[in-house]
Specification:
Blueprint: H1 2-5, H2 10-13, E1 15-20, E2 24-29, E3 32-33, E4 37-38, E5 41-47, E6 52-56, H3 63-72, E7 74-79, H4 89-95, E8 100-104, H5 107-113, E9 123-125, H6 135-138, E10 141-146, E11 153-158, E12 163-165, H7 190-198, H8 205-214, H9 219-230, E13 236-238, H10 249-256, H11 258-267
Parallel strand pairs: 6-7, 7-8, 8-9, 12-13
Antiparallel strand pairs: 1-2, 2-5, 3-4, 5-6, 10-11, 11-12
Helix pairs in contact: 9-11
């Protein structure tokens, strides 16, 4: 099934871009949801002030990626942002065995059930349990475990650059950058057109989808997490699916999550 989701030769179609010079680099690649819908995929690497590297939702570890990483520093943290974004955690840990692997509850068990590579998780987030990574990491990141999200989402805010890093919290489709080197239109195909219409940042479709779908299992917990994230100072949003929101991200976040923010206020 993986062969239907990711490109056979990711090195030919991956876009490596410095979002913040010498601090944040993204690795954008084609990705097909259910093997048919063009949503794109993205890994993000943040270089801490110490020189250590934090990797979020790692993508294929191609030679170009290895070369870029080698020029940035030492990988010390590898994070699967939810229970779906873990395909390449094994290869990255094999290449950087001293790194701390971070993920949400349920992911270690899921990987074992799927016979994925054996990866020891240093930090597993669980509901209502305070979590710290280490002083070096905590000095630069705020983070929230949205256990009310259907995919058990982890969200990080890189405070020095005011950058929110997330996987499936919100999409910014179409995935223009992620399909820019494929020769394919990022919106071609009827299923992709429908999915993009539901998961863009304009209009209210995604707001409704998150309220009635993504958060429906634990809307109260989801809303509480969104309220805490809203207190963070961020401007840029780097999603795994769709284009990077280079500025104005806080306002977009507040508009899409308006109902959850209102719900949190009412229950406070």
């Amino acid at each position: 099934m993986t062969s239907k989701l990711i490109p056979s030769d990711p090195s030919k179609v991956m876009v490596i871009r410095d979002i913040v010079p010498n601090t944040i680099t993204t690795f954008s690649t084609p990705f097909w949801r259910f093997g048919r819908i063009k949503v794109g995929g993205r890994g993000t690497v943040v270089r801490l002030q110490s020189g250590a590297l934090a990797v979020f939702s790692p993508v294929a570890l191609t030679d170009d990626v290895k070369e870029k990483i080698a020029g940035l520093g030492e990988v010390k943290y590898i994070t699967a942002l939810d229970i779906e974004h873990h395909i390449f955690v094994g290869p990255w840990y094999k290449a950087f065995p001293n790194a701390k692997v971070i993920g949400p509850e349920g992911l270690p068990e899921k990987r074992k059930k799927q016979n994925n590579e054996d990866v020891p998780f240093s930090h597993v987030f669980k509901p209502n349990q305070p979590m710290t990574i280490d002083p070096e990491f905590d000095a630069e990141f705020e983070y929230e475990y949205i256990y009310g999200h259907v995919n058990k989402e982890l969200v990080f805010n890189h405070k020095p650059s005011k950058t929110l890093i997330e996987a499936d919290l919100l999409f910014n489709l179409p995935a223009t950058e992620q399909f820019s080197k494929t020769g394919e239109n990022s919106t071609s195909g009827i299923l992709t057109k429908i999915f993009c219409a539901l998961n863009g940042t304009k209009g209210n479709a995604q707001k409704r989808l998150i309220w009635y779908g993504t958060s429906s299992g634990d809307r109260k917990g989801f809303s509480a997490s969104i309220s805490r994230i809203d207190k963070w100072d961020f401007d840029r949003i780097i999603p795994c699916h769709g284009d990077v929101i280079e500025n104005g991200g806080k306002g977009i976040f507040q508009r899409i999550m308006e109902w959850h923010l209102n719900a949190a206020k009412k229950s406070a």
